[in-house]
Amino acid sequence: MAGRGLGAALMPGGALGDMRHWLILGVIAALVMGYRGVLSRLSRRAVSGPAPGMVGAVAVPEPVGNAISDDELDRYARHIVLREIGGPGQQKLRNARVLIVGAGALGAPVALYLAAAGVGRITIADDDRVSLSNLQRQVIYGGGDIGQPKVHAAARRLADLNPHVQVTPLPRRITADDVALIRGFDLVLDGTDSFRSRQAVNRACTGAGVALVGGSIAQWEGQLSVWDPVHDAPCTACIFPDEPAPGLAPSCAEAGVVGALPGVIGSLMALEAIKLITGAGSVARGRLLILDGLWGETRSIAIRRNPDCPVCGSRG
Question: Is the pTM of this model over 0.90?
Answer without folding.
Answer: no
